[in-house]
Each structure stands twice: as C-alpha cells, then as structure tokens.
Amino acid sequence: MTWTLALAVSPTGNGTAKLGASGTPEITGYFPEIDRAVRFSSEGEDSRVPARTCLIIEEGLEPHALKWYLGELVIAGIPAQTVQVRSEVEVLSTAHGEPVEVIPQGTPKKKGFLSVEEPVRDEVTIIVPGREPEVRPREDVALLALENPVAQSLVDIPADAPAPAPEKNTSVNNYIIIVAVALAVVLGVVFLI
Q1: Is 18:28 a contact under the CB 8 Å cutoff?
Q2: Which of 68, 113, 139, 172: disulfide with 15, CB 3.0–4.6 Å?
C-alpha cells in the first residue's frame, strides 16, 4: 500500500503527519530537518518514499524559500512531481469550513553558535470569526491537511523533460585529438634532437 506524507514547514522545524498502512492519518512528530521527517515517517511503510506529499507553507513565503523546501524534498528522495503545495491558511480554512486568519509568529533568534537550548516548537495562532484565538502546533496543521484533502496545488511542477541525447563518439573524438597532438609533440621533439 502506498502512503501519503504531510509536512507543515517553517524556518524552525517541520510538523509531520502521514496517512499510511493503518488507513487513518496520524501525527509522526516535529523534526528540524525534512530528510529526518521523511525517514522517520516511512517506518512501518512498504516504501521509503511516499506516493504523494503535501507541503504546507506559511503565508507570504518567499519564492526562493519555497524552492529550498522543494529541493530538500528532492534530496530526501521524493520526486517533485508528487508534491502538492498548500498554504496553512487554506488548510485551516478548509478544516474549519470558514475563512480563518493566521497570526504570523516571529522567528526566534539564536543566542550563540553553540547554544544548548531546546528547539523551538513552532505553533500557529488561528483566529476564527466569533471565537477565541486558537494555538495549534504545526503537526496538527499537517494532520488537518491529510484529513481535508483538496485536488489543487499552489504550484504546478512540470514532469521532467526528456534529456537530450549526447552526440555519439564525442569522447572518442576528444581522445583522438589528444593522442594526435601528443604524437606530433613527441615526433617534433625526436626530430629536433
């Protein structure tokens, strides 16, 4: 059976949930690196790579940061074409059935290079009209994405284009040129002596 991974990413870590062999979505944890999240989530599944991945990003994420997250997924072995990108506002609005507002959290500063502090568990503060503000961990956002799937993605990643066929005998031609030049140099030196 194939499995699905959901990652709610932020600069401080990744909340992770999966829909696997059990058939019910479950939280797998909060991880500082994407490859560790993928590796840990794949335990108990028939393959190391999920068939589908849902990447949940913060509102207003810069394009270079999105490319970085997608690159981290590719490095972890997940094909980019299997990644669905959703915003956390869209996931939370779908889960609550009405528009919600997310209050952005500041990124904590490191105190020093060798800081021994506990990693910051990133949370999302949600404001639903007519209710008190609600604070949820990123793992819950990932779980909600699996419980409330949608078909569309914020980014369409094209399929790989076929690689151009290399010219035949290019490397052989280069070797022949190198040998001919070397032979000319050797013969020139021999006749000069």
Answers
A1: yes
A2: 139
Compute the distance between CA of residue 27 and CA of residue 138 in angstroms, rounded to an integer. Answer: 10
Which two structure tokens, joined as six digits, stand for 123? Answer: 């949370």
CA distance 84 to 41: 17
Q: Is the distance from CB of 120 to CB of 12 less than 8 angstroms?
A: yes
CATH number of the domain where residue 50 is located? 3.30.420
129 within some domain: yes
**Beta pairing class for 123-127 and 52-57:** unpaired
78 close to 102: Cβ distance less than 8 angstroms: no
Q: Which domain holds residue 70?
A: 4-162
Q: What is the pLDDT of residues 73-117, one digit of tens each?
A: 999 999 888 999 999 999 999 998 999 888 876 655 555 555 545
183-192 tens-digit pLDDT: 888 988 888 8
pTM, entire model: 0.74
